Task: inverse folding
């Protein structure tokens, strides 16, 4: 146990950048801190702290190992006591841009409030990410998954709808068939996902006024209010 206490003293001195500050963090006297550091250096046979209290090269390596060892000790004690280990470390998640901005980011903020020791890296892209190559822990994907892909859990469903802005309907009327859109000015959105996977397709080559690869930007720019045309 003396070794673990010496490790804690060294980490406290390193964090506080002084013997007195380290003693205050641990609630012990400064002489006790001095003796602990001296005993630790004598046992290891090397200088861990220079006179300026900057870590030596050996001290830096030892401090990193101390942090890891004490963290593992804390987790082992929590498990032995019947508790659960607090989540900590880095979590990398990915999702489509629009879905991520609307639904994932707010929930990440809530998660971080509950688990402050976790660092979340969110990769929002409109492409299928290779989880192994890009170091992704959790991926939110919309649509059919390839055979033999990673284990997956369905968390919801998306129902496609056809929408138009009120201004568009006032100008061109309410179309009853996709063919009626052929001669209308429109914005074409290029997406990697195919809408023809689970529904009947209607080939259409409209007169395109603009092209975009970002559904999120076009949705925000087009109008703030949408009027549903159809559920299919």
Result:
């Amino acid at each position: 146990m003396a070794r673990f206490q010496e490790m804690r003293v060294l980490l406290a001195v390193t964090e506080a950048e002084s013997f007195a500050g380290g003693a205050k963090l641990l609630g012990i006297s400064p002489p006790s801190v001095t003796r602990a550091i001296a005993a630790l250096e004598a046992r290891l046979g090397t200088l861990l702290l220079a006179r300026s209290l900057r870590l030596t090269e050996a001290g830096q390596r030892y401090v990193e190992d101390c942090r890891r060892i004490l963290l593992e000790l804390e987790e082992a004690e929590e498990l032995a006591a019947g508790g659960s280990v607090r989540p900590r470390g880095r979590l990398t998640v990915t999702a489509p841009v629009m879905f991520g901005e609307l639904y994932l980011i707010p929930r990440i903020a809530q998660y971080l409030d509950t688990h402050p020791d976790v660092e979340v890296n969110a990769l929002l892209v409109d492409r299928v990410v290779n989880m192994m190559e890009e170091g992704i822990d959790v991926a939110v994907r919309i649509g059919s998954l390839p055979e033999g892909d990673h284990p997956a859990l369905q968390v919801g469903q998306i129902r496609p709808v056809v929408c138009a802005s009120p201004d568009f309907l006032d100008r061109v009327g309410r179309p009853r068939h996709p063919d009626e859109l052929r001669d209308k000015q429109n914005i074409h959105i290029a997406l990697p996902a195919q809408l023809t996977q689970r529904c009947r397709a209607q080939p259409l080559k409209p007169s395109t006024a603009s092209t975009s690869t970002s559904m999120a930007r076009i949705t925000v720019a087009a109008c703030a209010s949408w009027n549903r045309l159809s559920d299919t």
